[in-house]
Design goal:
This protein is of the alpha+beta class. It contains 9 helices and 11 strands. It has a 6-stranded antiparallel β-sheet, sandwiched between helices. A 3-stranded antiparallel β-sheet has the order 1-3-2. It has a two-stranded antiparallel ribbon with strand order 10-11. The longest helix is centred in the C-terminal third of the chain and has 18 residues. It is elongated and about 65 Å long. The N terminus is likely disordered.
């Protein structure tokens, strides 16, 4: 993994299922957003060009035949796209008639990183998630042996979760904390575990390290975490990871419900909504499609 690059984080104190991008040129529209609004149709030539670029990025070099087969394009179409990308400086053909990706796209993306702001990227998505679910949405980041809220969007209901931006919460019994701990880089993961004191906060709190490790393995496998009244009586939460451009976990997004309002018959829908929101923020931050943690590879989109 390359050098981790810092993304600006400016919390302003205000209250307030994974898949690979299809390489097929026959895609005519994106999936609807949380509100179900239809997306405008894609420009097919541009979609094909990016499919070619994404396929080139996964190997050191490719033949025209292999590339055209992998992205489901006729050889003539793939060749025209490659020639266009070569003319623009994004691809080149070597002396063995194999195609490679240049660093021009990396340089373009690197310049964009200078202007990225985690808070700015996350807030509109978090607001849409809160409106869609009607519940409180938080974003938190890892800070030593705890997580810290850096963004909060209030529930529309009168009875809501008490919390504030800047509040520190435990890693072992909150949805945000479990996500950050599960997907942390190995050295951060190990350091945080060593410093944790598994204090029971409710009868449901995990207090055994073996049980916690099993829970974190489950979080990594399924791609989200659940807090089932483990941190506070009467509160349930679902959290999902936000990844940066290097594949490192940058933050976690969660939605919180009072138990009497938790959608027992809509758990799958609620989980999908939280994961979709986290993936959208990750996409803005330029994360890769796969993340490797502790010897396991996880698809994040």
């Amino acid at each position: 993994m390359g050098t981790r690059r810092k993304v600006a984080l400016r919390p302003r104190g205000s209250a307030g299922a994974p898949r690979r991008l299809a390489a097929s040129p026959r895609v005519t529209g994106a999936a609807p957003g949380l509100r179900g609004r239809p997306s405008p149709p894609l420009v097919s030539a541009l979609a094909r060009g990016f499919a070619v670029l994404e396929r080139l990025s996964r190997d050191s070099s490719l033949s025209l035949e292999q590339l055209s087969r992998d992205v489901h394009l006729a050889k003539a179409t793939a060749y025209r796209l490659l020639m266009t990308l070569q003319a623009l400086g994004y691809a080149r053909r070597d002396e063995h008639d194999r195609w490679t990706m240049t660093l021009r796209l990396f340089n373009t993306g690197s310049r964009a990183l200078d202007h990225l702001d985690l808070y700015t990227a996350a807030r509109p998505v978090a607001e849409e998630l809160a409106e869609h679910l009607g519940e409180t949405v938080h974003m938190g980041v890892l800070e030593g042996d705890a997580a810290v809220y850096v963004l909060k969007i209030e529930s529309k209901h009168t009875i809501r979760m008490f919390s504030r931006v800047g509040r520190r919460i435990p890693l072992y019994c909150t949805a945000i904390g479990k996500v950050l701990l599960a997907f942390a880089a190995p050295e951060e993961h190990a350091a945080a575990l060593r410093s944790l004191r598994l204090v029971p906060l409710t009868p449901r709190t995990i207090t055994a390290r073996v049980a916690l490790e099993a829970e974190l393995d489950k979080v990594r496998r399924q791609g989200f975490a659940v807090d089932n009244e483990e941190h506070e009586h009467g509160i349930r939460c679902i959290g999902a990871p936000v990844f940066g451009h290097t594949g490192e976990v940058m933050a976690a997004v969660s939605a919180s419900w009072p138990t009497f309002r938790f959608p027992a018959d809509g758990l799958v829908h609620a989980t999908a909504a939280v994961r979709t929101a986290a993936a959208r923020i990750s996409s803005i931050l330029g994360h890769p499609e796969e993340v490797e943690r502790n010897g396991m590879t996880f698809r994040t989109r």
